[in-house]
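**Tokenised fold:**
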Amino acid sequence: MEDSIYIKRLKERLRQNRDSKVFLSLAEELRKKDKMDEAIAVLIDGIKRHPDFIAARLTLGRWYLFSGMLSEAQKEYSEVIKQSPDNIFARKGLDEANKGLGIVEEVIPLSLHKNREAVIDRLNKFLEEIKIRFVTSSSLTHKDKDAVVNRLDRLLSAIKIHFAPSSGNPL
């Protein structure tokens, strides 16, 4: 199958500037044309030049996962997590790859459990700052201030419930 004009342009741009991040767009277009081997090769080469390009690693990990190349997917997702520990897409992908490989450890909860108290503490401080601003604000009536503070209290309570260990939520 002949390359489309767009693919030819992307290849030319990449040929002119090997350090361009256009390789990700080229790889996506090649995949759309069922040229998966070439698409993966383009991604691998681009990632060698841009090892910190998270979007490219996530794309490669996803393609590996869907192609059943679980060990390769695991490697790519692990690299993303090293660079961006809170990247939920990488954590979900790594979980899926691990499960496919028979590794039952869940990656998502391990990281987030450690941060639960810090998140709740930051939310409490944030709520207190907002309460102080509203109390000292002259543009709102007392009734409006109470309504806003009550809504924020309910929001904080909902967040705390979401983070509570007994809720069954992995966070």
About this structure: The helical segments are 5-16, 23-32, 36-49, 54-66, 70-83, 88-100, 107-136, 142-163. The mean pLDDT is 80.
